[in-house]
Design brief:
10% of the residues lie in helices and 29% in strands. By secondary structure, it is mainly beta. It has 2 helices and 9 strands, in the order H-H-E-E-E-E-E-E-E-E-E. The strands form 2 sheets. It has a 6-stranded antiparallel β-sheet, with no helix packed on it. Strands 2-1-9 form a 3-stranded antiparallel β-sheet, with no helix packed on it. The protein has one domain: Peptide methionine sulfoxide reductase (Metal Binding Protein, Guanine Nucleotide Exchange Factor, Chain A, Beta Complex), CATH 2.170.150.20. Strand 1 and strand 2 form a beta hairpin. It starts with 7 loop residues before the first helix and ends in a 10-residue tail after the last strand. The radius of gyration is 14 Å and the shape is globular.
Length: 138
């Protein structure tokens, strides 16, 4: 169960329509549409809904999929669940704190983990190093 609970009306008021569709309704943004896919600066990728730090920039890599991809989340930042939509089994990734849908994880990533956390950019916000007080929990 998520630590942060809000009504759907509260989430709709807080999030953009695109963020709501992805984070609360398990949608997917079109590939190649997120500016975060090209983000190369040092910093932290956090949940767009609650601000929880999720991925450090040094775990981001170019997967060629059109979505921001990471090989490892921060310790304890995300949870996963089985997703059987689209007539296949995938592993869905959620923010541990608010339960927001972030994307999926696949076993075809680079070393050292071999995992590809394929995230919807609209579900994330980027905070460059030195620009904020996001707590480092790695």
């Amino acid at each position: 169960m998520a630590e942060i609970e809000q009504s759907e009306a509260e989430w709709k008021n807080k999030l953009t329509p695109e963020q709501y569709k992805v984070l609360r309704e398990h949608g997917t943004e079109p590939a190649g549409t997120s500016p975060l896919n090209a983000e190369k600066r040092s910093g932290v990728f956090a949940c767009a809904a609650c601000g929880t730090p999720l991925f450090d920039s040094d775990t981001k890599y170019e997967s060629g999929t059109g979505w921001p991809s990471f090989y490892k989340p921060r310790e304890g930042a995300v949870e996963t669940a089985e997703d059987r939509k689209l007539f296949m089994v995938r592993t869905e990734v959620h923010c541990r704190k608010c339960g927001g849908h972030l994307g999926h994880v696949f076993p075809d990533g680079p070393k050292p983990t071999g995992e590809r956390y394929c995230m919807n950019g609209v579900a994330l916000k980027f905070e460059p190093s030195g620009a904020a007080t996001l707590e480092r929990k790695s």
